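polynucleotide adenylyltransferase: structure tokens wanted.
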Amino acid sequence: IPVFYYIFLRRQNSDYNSHVVKHPRLESRSHPFTDSPLIRAPPPRHPGQIVAGSSRADYSCYYSSSEPHPHHPQVSAVPENSNSLQNYAKDKLSGQMLELFESCQQQPSDLARKEMCRTRLQQDIQRVYAVARLYLTGSSMNGLGCRSSDADLCLVLTGHKKHDAIYVLSVLQRLFKSLSYIERTQLIRAKVPILRFREKGSDLEFDLNVNNTVGIRNTFLLRSYAYADVRIRPMILVVKKWAQHNQINDASKGTLSSYTLVLMVLHYLQTLKEPVLPSLQRDYPECFNPLMDIDAVPDGPKHIPPYISRNQSSLGELLLGFLKYYATYFSWDKQVISVREARTFPKPYYQEWRKKYICVEEPFERTNAARAVHEKNKFEAIKAQFAESCRILQQRKDLNSILPVRAIINKESATR
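Answer:
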């Protein structure tokens, strides 16, 4: 089992090392919601305090046969935040968002199940590729998953030989058909080819790629943002549920991927006059070096000190502001979203950017994460949904007016 993977799951209950405080280098940005800079400071510690965002479960039991590397200290990558989530959910709309989040967020038992399957798969794959390492990535590991979230897997094959992804996945497809606990294998020849399959007898679906290690880097970058402020995870979950309900959250059908939606939320929160988030890559480049060895990636964020935003907007205010920003202020035809720099920049003249309807910079590879939106009618539908939902929510201040809260909760409750 990879050393860093063991350490990551051991950290779920660890305390964050908050002795180092770095002065912010955040500039004010320019859309009309609140003002004053972000400040970082270690929040007060209280006996029995739960670290913001940390899981109450200790997953080290899955790795009891492994020992942590002596050069990898047991330090959590999760910053603290002394503000309780309830402080941001005192109005009706915010309370509905909190209820939806608490009902739908991935549970420790969900992650445990995915991890058990990952462990079995790695053992079986190593019969064919002895040097293979298999990693859970994406929303399962970055704190942004739901109970119904599928699991993303990255198979890392090292060595001098260059591995063709389609060939490797074809080999694995044949292997998986002989495994008693896997069914419905399907090879999908996308830009990043994947092998899709299900755990037998359940609805737990996996997408496995080969050597797409940027997904591992993104997992820990987004995890650092997810736990940076207690409002981030509820905000993102509600936005994803809203987009799914309104059929604008499916890259395979020419709309927005969940990953793109997450970057759009983070960008909005970074660019408020009174930011909720900084740019972690800009302020702490050494922690998210794109050339960092994969085994060192989970240790990068441990050096980031806690920070507190002066922005005290409620969950509902932030959701309405998010819809309003993209419905009114953001220039789709002229701007590229950059979470890496916490700003927008003008569309470059390269074809990848110039001819796309939506431009969202991938934080490590700097490609367009929104390239799936390539049809004008799909783009217009996305814009129209932001405008319509903004209008309705501003008028009614009721989450049920833009998505069926109880139906979603009931569906998630029946999951797994």
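The first strand starts at residue 133 and ends at 137. The chain is about 35% helix and 10% strand.

Cheers.
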